[in-house]
Specification:
Arc Repressor Mutant, subunit A; 3 strands; DNA-binding; alpha+beta; homodimer
Chain lengths: 106, 106
DNA sequence: ACCTCAAATCGAATATCTTCAATATAAATA
DNA sequence: TATTTATATTGAAGATATTCGATTTGAGGT
């Protein structure tokens, strides 16, 4: 497996967990401080921190530190990148009927 | 966690694993029989079967049985659905600066 | 009916992910 | 500087995923 696939998989990890989808949903209405997210999602503080790391690593969420607080928001660039990737991964290159790879051992 | 998030997570599971991304890449050039995929991806037969199930469950890949063989291909509908979902999950609803939820305990 | 071959399912081993409690770090405040 | 507060990190437990070998199922062919 090459590095490329690993990186691509990382982007979509953001959307693979229910808790992260819940956080994402909360952030749709705008930037939120971690403490607000913690109040709304029923998980421990360290668990939230872990999920935020996964989200930030995917590029879909960006973090902004201000004093003691960390503010999270949906990244427009990261989201666009994920959408572009999804498009690429599912784009059929040639739709010809006589694709030699299609047939197998018959 | 509600059923909705679980179902959404399932769609993106397709893109969360390197092996599945490799299979997806192979299918971009058109429909392929499982035996062809098995030749090209270095995994056991039962492992491939498992991954194909995850891919089909996500809706991104569709399966067609013909005689002894199963042919897999990228589903245009499933891909569109995934793209739409991604869009929805990352769409910021209101971008107003005075979002009351943004500020926290200060 | 028997045999062959493609694919699915089962059961077990291993690896990865999720979660929490405890601790560490880092910023603000007394 | 000591204390409080927000978040990150660590370490360990439990849950879920991945993988494989063995077996089963199902469609053809002999």
């Amino acid at each position: 497996m090459d590095k490329c696939h690993l990186d691509n998989a990382k982007v979509f990890k953001a959307f693979c967990d229910e808790t992260r989808l819940r956080v994402l949903e909360l952030l749709r209405s705008g930037e939120k401080c971690a403490c607000v997210l913690l109040e709304k999602v029923e998980i421990g503080q360290s668990t939230l921190s872990h999920h935020m790391k996964v989200l930030v690593d995917s590029g879909v969420i960006s973090a902004r530190k201000q004093g003691k607080w960390t503010y999270y928001s949906i990244s427009a660039d990261g989201s666009k990148n994920a959408a572009r990737l999804l498009q690429e991964l599912t784009a059929v290159t040639i739709a010809s009927d006589n694709d030699e790879n299609a047939r197998c051992c018959e």
